[in-house]
Amino acid sequence: MSETELKGLRVLVIDDNVDTAEAIALLLADAGAETSVATDATDVAARVLAFDPGMVLLDLSLPTVDGYEGCRAIRALEGLQPYIVAVTGWDGAEHVWRCRQAGFDLHLTKPVAAELLVEHAHLALRRSAQRQG
After folding, report:
1. What CATH architecture is 10-114?
2. Domain boundaries, the chain
3. Does the global pTM surpass 0.85?
């Protein structure tokens, strides 16, 4: 993986498991992405406005504000439409459906292979470039 492979992509990782959040952020940072980590979705809209990520990796099971509510808060922001991925231990058709209803672009079940995260980061980078160009 090249250190500049994901250059220009900002990724916000939100997971209450600090080790998981930091490992994902490190993986994407090693590929050139700029990353930010949070352990809950409280004030997620303010974080997205401040960081302007092209991709948000959001756990569903979070304290205070769950991932579904966090995703809806991001989607309610004017002009910002990051690629939002649920990265969760919750599997099954019901959770996939609820993710779609909340506005997620994708539902991935933990553990997620590094290659799959990088593949979707590339999609987010292309999507960001299309919006800017």
Report:
1. 3-Layer(aba) Sandwich (3.40)
2. 10-114
3. yes
